[in-house]
Amino acid sequence: MKELRERRALADWHAMEAQRRLAAQAEVEAGKDLRKTHEMRVVQEREIYSRLIESGATAIGELERCRMILEALASEVERKRKRLEETKAAHGTAEAAATASRAVWARSSVSVRKWGLIETDLGTLRRTRQDFRTEIETEDDIALRRVGSRAAADGGKGR
Length: 159
Hints:
Layout (H helix, E strand, L loop, with lengths): L1 H54 L4 H98 L2
Helix pairs in contact: 1-2
């Protein structure tokens, strides 16, 4: 039963480790995605500002369109930043779960090893006790034979 619990704990730990690795990879990917989006934003902002400066456009419609584009870019960067924060939190949770499941497995493993040693010691003790019993029975048999042979020898002399 203890071995079964240990195997289950080991399987749980491996599953948690897999989830931790996936969460870590998701965090890395979210970070890359945020950097890429931020870089795109910088490039597009530079292009927009350059166009505005070159055209000298001060028309309200053009300025409003540029403002909306810049807000959309900022919104996209913020959305990616939030996604990165979510993946960091998920990674932290997965890390804690993996650590906890490893601790459960370690305790279970120690328990199985400890009980294995106890069972080995008990087996050794049982074998030793059986050996002593066998020796005592053998010595008793020898002593009874000696007593019986002496009694027979003494009985034969007395007649």
